[in-house]
Design a protein that fits this description.
By secondary structure, this protein is mostly helical. It contains 23 helices and four strands.
Amino acid sequence: MSDKKLPKEAYGGVSGKDYVPYITDKSHKGANVAVLIIGIFLATIFAASTAYSGMKSGLTVAAGIPGAIIGSMFVGVFAKEKGILGKNILQGMSSGGESIASGMIYVLPAIILIGSQITFFEGVVIGVGGVLFGIGCCSLVYNYLIVEEHGKLMYPESMAISETLVASDGGGDAIKFMGIGFAISGIINVLTSSFLNVLNNTMTFIGSRFYKWKFSTEVNPLLLGIGFIVGLEVSLTMFAGSILSNFGVAPLIGYFTDMAANGAVVWNDPAIAINQMDVNSISGSYVKYIGAGMMLCGGIIGALKLIPTIVVSIKETLKAKSSKDGNSEGSSSEMLILLGGIVIGFVGAFLVSQSITMAIVGGIVSLILSLLFVIVAGRLTGTIGTSNLPVSGMTIASLVILTLVFVIMGWKGQADNKSLLLFAAFMVVAISIAGGYTQSQKVAYIIGGSKREMQNYFTIAGIVGVVVVTGTILLLSSQLAITGSDAPFALPQANLMSTLTSGIMSGNLPWVMIIVGIFIALVLFFLNLPIMTVAIGFYLPISTTSIILVGALIRVFVEKMSKSEAEKETRVANGISLSSGLVAGGSIIGLIGIILQVSGIIKPNIPTGFASTNAMALIILAVLVVATTIPIISSKPKGNQR
């Protein structure tokens, strides 16, 4: 491995304007036609895979480090003369595609869930407006966030990406393990429900009428990979939420539903008698609304916690020196991008609402809330990184405010609800792109890349991401519309958004359940437990959280079996690379399978005989665990790491 290292000043110790980057040749640019084509390809891949996996699990995986690793390989083959600056552009474009997906999947599928339809044009116009506005706002505070706060805002994931780029000549192992993960995930997905569906990959056990519980595990390599990446703490916390939901709350509600009088029916499905409800209908009609209340409270508490950060961000931004004093590069283009976002936002607002009044009121409120939370997202990324950015909390807070504005204005119909969610899509794209953009600009600053070049190519990647994610959601629309305990896509955030807006507008919600969820969240807050993580686990099917936990347990096993710190670091790094391959393979192969099914090229089967049993799923789980663990546990640190 190379002995090259980042300068120690990259982590602070000097003022931002005096920092000397890793590459000092300012005349050297990182992009050319080959880098652009590769970047668009990576933005497409990470946007599609993040959209698919995020809608499946409710969790997303940051693309910066995988993008840096894959980008290093492509640059070495197709654009060697661009070196580390070319790799820097590619990690930024990878993050651009992923950031879009991490935001749009929270809101856009909610339009399908309320029973409306979305067109490709609507999704693209609103998304592009959000991209341009978010990047434009971040560019205005670039000097403050990136330069003046150097050493104070650490941007932890930016530093990890920078270290990966500097050590990129050691990326061969990472590419190898990503390939292994992709192959494992691809083979299992082709054989199971994502593609040919010749083998059952879900174990399900349901309790008796006396105690109405359910336990299930979906043997999905994508979800197992996410578990390895996020680790035991997050996975176990989510699983605890599922245990509470499936073995605590559902049986308790079931105990009382059995006592219901004949003729009493479920609030949202008059065809089902309350005293005949099974565990699935209890979960779908009652338990999930407790989870919605938990997520709502968690989002509001998260937004309230941001108030000091908002105040500091606004004060420091107003005090910060003009970008002309520090880095004037790109000042005219950033204003054009910002104005473009505002203009497209208002045009999109009118097109989706067909009302000048709604376009003006909704547009102004959306722009103000977006500006506020974009600055907060940029600052928070400097503290906790994009992986931990509370996008859902900021989106919930914004959406509740905007929904109340709609109710006050008397806009309560289904068409109004669709318009409201499209305004929310603009906001969530601006917020989520802000995290990825500031993170990528910090990498460019540390490495010595061009601010304007990163700005322009990240914008291209963001627009590509909007097109890809909108297309992916439309492609999957028939499956996204399926709700209930066995829905193919869990959509926890989108379900919450649709529940909130529809319920507030119509007043038709099981408010007792939502209030119970709010009080459970308050108890978690008083116990200093992560509300949103528990709430997502409570809301998600236990089939999802259980396999995520299996992935985390493999990581614990790998760490415990390592004999030295160097060996543990190597194995965990290779495990994360392999897990990234599992996520990418599951997402891409799953999407290809759905495309082939929709086009009629393949017809999904229904497993029969032994292939349809829980035992078959258990065998697939054993094969997946062994196939994943052996390559990781067999890896050894290189000579100079021992």
